[in-house]
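Morning F.,

Quick status update on the modeling queue. The single chain you submitted on Monday has been processed. Sequence for confirmation:
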Amino acid sequence: MEKADRDREDEGARTGTPEGQDQLVEEVVRHEWDQFQEVNNEGGPANCQGNWPVFHQMRRSQFLVWPLDLLSSYADDLDQADRSGRNLLTEKYGRMMESTAPEDYRRNITPYLPRLGLERQARQEAIIDREVAWAKDFKGRYPRLGRQMRVLRTSQDTGSATSFETYLRGELGTYSARTLDLYESMVRRMADQGRNLTEETILATVRQSGFDDLEQAEAAQSTD
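Structure tokens below.
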């Protein structure tokens, strides 16, 4: 067994992720990466488009937390996008430009994006509000780890920095109706159970870096 495979198997054991689901996580991350390589960036490929290890860790952490039905639905979204000539990563980053580069967005991006109805937008904003609150709570309890996160609000966006809120809005806008339904259900269920999606996602991240828990990872961060 290759070391990378052993590492993934160990991570699956730590998170309680079933082997089949862990394999699907890997397939989804790789599919996203393949689409990410096709995203056109002004001035040439962005540095992050050549950084597979970081992309893999960040996206894997997100998907490890998702239930299998949601993960499977999103995998179907990526497959369907390929069949119809769409690129969900291009659309995600395009939607973010509504805040980070509004003139370019109105002129060059809007005509090529699927339109989202008012009801869909309202549902997405409710999810975003819940998740921003979770992220703010996490930053308050783990300030050192929190410093490595994105800024929270769209009002803090710049041409070179995208907030957590804007990034999430871009991503939710790429989901099919079925995937959004399942994602919304996950968020509602976690809120009812007193869980925090940001906390669970970052826990998955730090475990991939060799830490046992968030407290250990927090203590290892620089205080500068």
